[in-house]
């Protein structure tokens, strides 16, 4: 047997062994199912706590550095104070903003048929001339809006029917949300308190040279995630707040709700701006062309300030990802994991890119 044949036999056996291992795992999946349930249960609380950890850890570091006369705040008390501030802000939001947002959602749902009729009248007004009338008749706008209204009615009925039929599922969902809400503050507290101890705990089990490299790599990864999350929080708050103020000034109803939508969709790079603009334009249609123009002006001003002032200073070149790469990431991640994939695609890619760049730099030095 020559060298080529022996290599071919080796890789054939390796592939056969991998296939057998995969097949064996599928036959004993009952062993791995509890492990999967364990990780799926912890995924949401750990993900939420990790998000708040990177957003609030700079504040904890600032509190730890405070020295006034004999007053010194250790990391445990700094984490506790930060957690209290977070819970206080959440409580204020629940007391002030959430009821207003819920009221605006309720009013918008009740007035949706009226808005659809106003949109239909608006398009009918635009189609007064002959050419536009031909286009309108070819599209059959009246049937289109009637279909939208019918679809919304059917969707609402299906939601109500599913809510009454799947009471057990709803109870399970409420229980899961309750457990998550209760466990997240505890996980977050210990992350803020003992976060700096994680890296030394890992390094002490590694050889000295490997420990140094692992420390550098984890430090870069943590910095990338921290700057991205902190930047996104500041961006979303800025876009949401000033969009709501701007839409309110130009006379858009439910400006607070539309501002919240604009802030939340801003977390999706490039595409989120246009997604957040759509509901504002729909609500501006009853105001005519001038109202829609003012909505676009507000959106452009807010996003220009964000893109030229906020984004470069809070995120900078930490990510340095080409726009086409981001669009491809969003498309692929959206098809694989839905909305969660769209939200996590960019930071995940940024971390992977940091790892590849680090090992490539080590390879070039050798």
Instruction: Write down the secondary-structure element order.
Output: HHEEHHHHHHHHHH
* Fraction of residues in H or I helices: over 70%
The fraction of residues assigned to DSSP E strands is: under 5%
* Number of beta-strand segments: 2
Provide mean pLDDT, rounded. 75
Annotation field: number of helices: 12
- Unreliable spans: none
User: What structural class do the secondary elements suggest?
Assistant: mainly alpha
Shape: globular
Could you explain how this protein is built, in words?
The structure is a single chain. The chain is mostly helical and about 375 residues long. Helix content is about 85%, strand content about 0%. It contains twelve helices and two strands; from the N terminus they run H-H-E-E-H-H-H-H-H-H-H-H-H-H. The chain has helices at about 5-25, 30-65, 75-125, 130-140, 140-165, 165-195, 200-205, 210-250, 255-265, 270-285, 290-315, 325-365; strands spanning about 65-70, 70. A two-stranded antiparallel ribbon has the order 1-2. Strand 1 and strand 2 (about 70) form a beta hairpin. The longest helix is centred in the N-terminal third of the chain and has 52 residues, at about 75-125. The protein is globular, with a radius of gyration of 27 Å. The protein starts with a helix and ends with a helix. The mean pLDDT is about 75.
């Amino acid at each position: 047997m020559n060298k080529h044949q022996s290599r071919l036999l080796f890789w054939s056996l390796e592939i056969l062994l991998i296939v057998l291992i995969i097949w064996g795992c599928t036959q004993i999946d009952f062993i791995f199912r509890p492990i999967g349930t364990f990780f799926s249960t912890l995924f949401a609380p750990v993900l939420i706590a990790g998000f708040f950890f990177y957003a609030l850890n700079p504040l904890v570091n600032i509190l730890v550095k405070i020295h006034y006369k004999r007053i010194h705040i250790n990391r445990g008390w700094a984490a506790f104070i930060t957690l209290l501030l977070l819970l206080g802000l959440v409580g204020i939001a629940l007391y002030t903003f959430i009821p207003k947002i819920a009221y605006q959602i309720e009013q918008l749902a009740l007035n949706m048929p009226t808005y659809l009729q106003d949109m239909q009248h608006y398009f009918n007004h635009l189609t007064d001339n002959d050419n536009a009338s031909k286009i309108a008749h070819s599209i059959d706008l009246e049937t289109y809006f009637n279909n939208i209204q019918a679809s919304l009615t059917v969707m609402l009925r299906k939601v109500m029917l599913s809510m009454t039929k799947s009471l057990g599922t709803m109870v399970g969902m409420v229980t899961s949300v309750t457990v998550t809400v209760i466990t997240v503050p505890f996980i977050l507290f210990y992350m803020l308190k003992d976060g700096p101890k994680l890296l030394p705990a890992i390094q002490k089990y590694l050889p000295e040279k490997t420990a140094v490299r692992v420390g550098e790599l984890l430090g870069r990864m943590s910095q990338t995630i921290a700057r991205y999350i902190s930047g996104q929080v500041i961006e979303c708050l800025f876009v949401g707040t000033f969009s709501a103020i701007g839409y309110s000034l130009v006379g858009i109803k439910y400006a607070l709700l539309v501002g919240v939508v604009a802030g939340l969709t801003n977390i999706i790079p490039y595409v989120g701006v246009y997604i957040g603009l759509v509901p504002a334009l729909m609500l501006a249609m009853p105001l005519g062309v001038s109202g829609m123009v003012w909505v676009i002006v507000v959106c452009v001003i807010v996003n220009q300030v964000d893109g030229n002032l906020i984004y470069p200073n809070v995120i900078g070149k930490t990510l340095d990802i080409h726009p086409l790469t981001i669009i491809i990431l969003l498309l692929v991640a959206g098809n694989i994991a839905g909305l969660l994939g769209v939200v996590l695609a960019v930071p995940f890619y940024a971390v992977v890119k940091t790892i590849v760049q680090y090992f490539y730099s080590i390879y070039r030095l050798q």
